[in-house]
Automatic annotation (TrEMBL):
The lineage of its organism: Bacteria, Bacillati, Actinomycetota, Actinomycetes, Kitasatosporales. Residues 12-105 form the SnoaL-like domain. It comes from Streptomyces kaniharaensis. This is Nuclear transport factor 2 family protein. It holds the Pfam family SnoaL_2. Gene3D superfamilies: 3.10.450.50.
């Protein structure tokens, strides 16, 4: 029997794996040609996306999910991005799942405090 995760379950697994620093699990969730755009940059393809997640992951303390809304293959997660270098940043993440893999991610938040933290 094969079990296919819903887009919501994929999003839940993505955030849990990122918070845990489990990049092997993250790799398994992302499409090879995943397209990422966010407040700190863009990434094309799985290797660039993982590099970005690893980079921010160095300062990541926790992800405090406030709400997650899923409709079909689209999921929006509203969360506080808690890092060791800046106050929590309220963040919105939209992801689109295609054929069981995350194909597109868009993230928005005010990056000023985080950027200042990186420069210290």
């Amino acid at each position: 029997m094969t079990t296919t995760m819903t887009a919501r379950e994929i999003a839940e697994t993505y955030f849990a794996a990122w918070q845990a620093g489990d990049f092997e699990t993250l790799r398994g969730l992302l499409a090879d040609d995943v397209d990422f755009a966010g407040a700190l940059g863009t990434a094309s393809g799985i290797d660039e996306a993982l590099a970005g997640l690893k980079g921010l992951g160095q300062a990541l303390e926790k992800i405090e999910v406030r709400v997650r809304v899923a409709e079909g293959d689209d999921v929006i997660t509203w969360f506080d991005l808690c890092t060791s270098i800046a106050p929590p940043a309220p963040t919105a993440n939209w992801m689109h799942v295609d054929n069981g893999k995350i194909a597109r991610i868009r993230v928005t938040f005010d990056p000023r405090e985080l950027l200042a933290g990186f420069s210290r």
